[in-house]
Automatic annotation (TrEMBL):
Keywords: Signal, Transport
InterPro entries documented for this protein: Bact_solute-bd_prot1 (IPR050490), SBP (IPR006059)
Native source organism of the sequence: Deinococcus hopiensis KR-140
Cited Gene3D superfamilies: Periplasmic binding protein-like II (3.40.190.10)
Name of protein: Trehalose/maltose transport system substrate-binding protein
Signal peptide: 1-22
Length: 419
């Protein structure tokens, strides 16, 4: 009896000590789709497991706004945020502000992720962040409407998409004036950079800046791609497309008011939710080719620990937990967020929830990277110049050839003495 009481006493002391050592970790989460909800739920599971507390910082939805806010926090060496959610193109710009996770995260855990994403997260030998989910642009389409208008498969080329979208749009507008053929991300921000890079790469127009750092945008195929996209505005896409981000496009498609949509994989889970007008009527295919290839821009997000965090050990543990297989599987099933762990693409539960993860596996593993590597710390300026140029073409202020020629001059100025 005395021994049992003694053991209870020791357990109480240990629990109290554990509680006394508990810390609060602040995690910056995205807010697109159900991202915030899944972020909260995952961090709550870690908190329950460890006895620590997680405070959620809700980041702006637009990537440009989020980057600006993060840069302010990091420049001030603020300890307010411990773990940041980082876009795949940010490690090169922000690496100095983050803890080197090499050696702090077991090598076996690191090597379980796609090597190309680990490479993107590594700057000058420093592992800036751990991959959380990857992304690539895909084409969503209404399976019921393709069948209704006599089409047997998704469009393989952009001209095919334009033809199909116009026929479906014209037919559906007889009963629904709000119906449109194709929605995408046309607003002047990072999302437009992603969409336009897909158009240009699919036409064989390169990737704005090539891997050696040479400015490659000033070519006929890039110009043709931009002129093609401009021809969709007020034709198969609404005039307001130049103000759409991911959620605006998803809202229209999910309300049953579009035949086709370019978006990221997260939109699948939202479209299949109870109450969705398109539930059970969605197909997913590779984005069309412009004659050279099907091209999808590489997206995705990572988790990095701030150099200025006062709770680095707990923050690293949180990152390891959230980027591990159990959490990535939950996020894949519930939110259709692409895992960064190849093993999960063979998981039966994941493939049942998101069938196209299997059929479009090559789209995700061969996605086109934005030129953040060769342009390094100047990527943000390059991307802004690019999206502004594309926006001018979509808005009818410029034609493709003149636009890419001017952009090349603008990029040369940004490049200055070298990237």
């Amino acid at each position: 009896m005395k021994k049992a009481i003694a053991l209870i006493g020791i357990t109480s002391v240990l629990a109290a000590a554990s509680q006394a050592g508990a810390v609060t970790v602040t995690l910056a989460c995205g807010t697109v789709g159900i991202e915030l909800q899944l972020c909260k739920e995952g961090s709550a599971r870690w908190a329950k497991k460890t006895g620590n507390t997680v405070k959620i910082f809700e980041s702006p939805a637009l990537t440009n706004d989020r980057l600006g806010l993060y840069q302010q926090q990091l420049a001030a060496k603020s300890s307010d945020i411990d773990v940041y959610q980082l876009d795949v193109v940010w490690p090169g710009q922000l690496s100095e502000h983050f803890v080197d996770l090499k050696g702090k995260v077991p090598a076996g855990e690191v090597s379980a992720h796609f090597p190309a994403i680990i490479e993107a997260d590594t700057v000058n030998g420093k592992l800036v962040a751990m991959p959380w989910f990857t992304d690539a642009g895909v084409l969503y389409y209404r399976t019921d409407l393709l069948k209704k208008y006599g089409f047997t498969s998704a469009p393989k080329t952009w001209p095919e998409l334009a033809l199909m979208a116009k026929k479906i749009q014209d037919g559906e507008q007889k009963a629904n004036k709000a119906f449109t053929g194709f929605v995408f991300q046309g607003k002047n921000y990072e999302g437009l950079t992603c969409d336009a890079l897909e158009w240009i790469a699919s036409f064989g127009g390169g990737t704005i800046v090539d891997n050696s750092g040479k400015i490659s945008i000033n070519n006929a195929q890039a110009a043709k791609a931009l002129d093609t996209a401009a021809s969709w505005v007020k034709s198969i896409s609404p005039a307001g497309i130049t103000t759409y981000d991911e959620e605006a496009a998803r809202g229209i498609f999910q309300a049953g008011n579009a035949a086709f949509m370019r978006n990221w994989p997260y939109a699948w889970a939202r479209g299949q939710e109870e109450g969705s007008k398109v539930r059970g009527k969605i197909g997913v295919a590779p984005l069309p080719s412009g004659g050279a290839r099907n091209a999808a821009t590489l997206g995705g997000w990572q988790l990095g620990v701030s150099q200025y965090s006062k709770n680095q050990a707990a923050s690293i543990d949180l990152v390891r937990y959230l980027t591990g297989p159990a959490e990535q599987k939950i996020r894949a099933i519930q939110g259709s967020y692409n895992p960064t762990l190849p093993a999960l693409y063979k998981d039966k539960d994941v493939l049942k929830a998101v069938p196209f993860f299997g059929s479009l596996y090559n789209v995700f593993t061969s996605a086109v990277a934005r030129p953040s590597g060769p342009t390094k710390g100047k990527y943000n300026q390059v991307s802004q110049a690019f999206s502004t140029t594309v926006s001018s073409v979509l808005n009818g202020q410029s034609k493709g050839q003149a636009a890419v020629a001017k952009l090349a001059t603008d990029l040369a100025r940004i490049k200055g003495r070298g990237w």
